[in-house]
Amino acid sequence: MISSLQELLHEQNQSEGRSQIRPLISPNLTPTEVTEFIQAISQMKLPARLSDIDRRFARHTPNIQSIILASEELGLIELSEICMYRYLDLTDLGRGFLIASDARAGILRARLVRIEPFRTACSLLSTKKRISVKDLIRALPRGYSDLGADDLEETSLGLVLINWGVATGLFRYNGKTGKFETKNEDRDSCSG
C-alpha cells in the first residue's frame, strides 16, 4: 500500500501550481475525517515519514490516501522529500486550523472556493442562485469533459458537493429540486 500512496502523492505533486481539474477530494470523504486526521497527526513528532503515517493509520483508516490528498489540497499539510523519504508536516494554516476550533468550517470554506469543482459551482451560484450537478458539469473547465458521462460520475460529484460544500456552509442543497442554492439570497455565500 505504501508504494501506491507514494506514487499517488508523487503524481499529485508533479502538477503543483496547477488549476485543479480533477477533485482530489473523494466523494466518500468528509470534513470530519480530515479534521480528525489533522488532530491525530498534530500529536506526532513532525515532520513524520509518510511510511510511518501509513503504518499508523492504514489499518483503522482505509481511505488514508484520500485524507492525505485532501489535506494537502486544502493547504493543511505539506509533503516534502528528504533523502529519498517522503515526509508530512502541518502547514501554518494546519496549525491555525487546530487552534480555531469554532472557525474550522470557515477555514475550509475559504480554501474550497479556490479549487474545482467548488470554484465553478460558486461562480455559477453567483449568477444563477440555483444549479444542478448537470449545470456544473457543463460549466466545468476543460478536463472535466468526461465527467457526467454516466450517472456514477454525476453522483460522485454530487456527493463531493454535499459532503464538503454543504457541510462547510458554502451553499445548501434542496432535496426536492435536486439543486444547490446559495445559503442566503441576499448575499454570495461562496465568498468564503
Protein described:
Helices cover 49% and strands 11% of the residues. With 192 residues, it is mainly alpha-helical. It has two domains: 2-97, Arc Repressor Mutant, subunit A (Orthogonal Bundle); 111-191. The strands form two sheets. The chain has a three-stranded antiparallel sheet. Strands 4-6-5 form a three-stranded antiparallel sheet. Strand 2 and strand 3 (85-90) form a beta hairpin. Helix 2 (31-42) crosses helix 4 (64-73). 27% of the residues are buried. Mean pLDDT is 81; it is low at 1-22.
Rg, nearest Å: 17 Å
Element-level helix/strand string: HHEHHEEHHHEHHEE
Task: List the domain count as a whole number.
Answer: 2
Indicate the percent of residues in helices: 40-55%
Short summary:
Residues 1-22 have low confidence and may be disordered.
Topology at a glance:
Layout: H1 2-14, H2 31-42, E1 48-49, H3 50-57, H4 64-73, E2 77-82, E3 85-90, H5 92-99, H6 104-112, H7 118-128, E4 130-131, H8 133-139, H9 151-166, E5 172-174, E6 179-181
Antiparallel strand pairs: 1-3, 2-3, 4-6, 5-6
Helix pairs in contact: 2-4
